[in-house]
Amino acid sequence: MRCSKPVAAALTVLALASTLGCQPVARAEGRMRQIYETPDGRIRIVGRAELGTGEAEAIAGRVQAAYDWVARTQAWPDAAPLSAPLQVTVAETPGVLGVAMKDRFKVGLAYLRSDPVLSAGTLAHELTHIQDRREVRPSGVPGFIAEGRGLTDGFMYRRSLGYPPQPYDRSLARAIAGYTAADAAAVLDDLSPGDLADPAANRRLEFIGAWFVEFLRTRCGGAGFVDVQPRLARVITEMRGGADFGAAFKDVFGLDWDATRTAFVAEARQTRGAERLKGTIWQGLAEAPHSKTP
Predict the structure, then answer these.
(1) Which is more confident, 162 or 243?
(2) Which CATH architecture has domain 2-139?
(3) Is the per-residue pLDDT at 169 higher than 90?
């Protein structure tokens, strides 16, 4: 299960389920009920008395729009696993932003109401995880790949809706601009699913994962791979068929995984600050004079 923590640390930090009150929510969910279901049955909204039918329908519309955007962006070779109904639990517990499972999704009601901009990104981020989980068993995807995909999808979905970069994005850009080669190596050397208990380590995994996805898109192999997300989706699909990550990566990108890892660490060693962010989705964000850590 992947839980989001307040944006002061990171938009979605996976290992904090207990600290975000997921257990109290689970006890309260016994009193929850289905409030709305889309006509095609794809999205089911579950909540408590505070959530009315009209608001539940609006939330279903937001979830479905984000889910469909992610599916188009990933261009999955096999979309069949994505068609199963998705239950969305709207939680009233303070501090819950988003929790992704395979066929269930929990999102905070207060968060949806109070921050429509960042919550739109959270929807796309967590729904990327859900689609990954539907396409391959969760333990197969390295944590930095899963989180890198989710963070970049979340940012780009917000941008597709016309929202400008937020203070959170500037905080992320500054963090990426300052990571060392040792940081990059430590993250890419771990092909496990992540879910680290240390919030700082989890934040590093997420942010360097996002940086790595942008490295693949903009610089890897010389010119980068503009279709990085569909390619990573194909990597995941090949892993579902039994290939390990390194073999699937080489088949899809045509690059040796160890050599790619070495190139990324070299990029981290040779660049710093604004230079590192040139051409990426965060170009120009690290220097914003009025930004503040969210």
Answers:
(1) 162
(2) 2-Layer Sandwich (3.30)
(3) yes
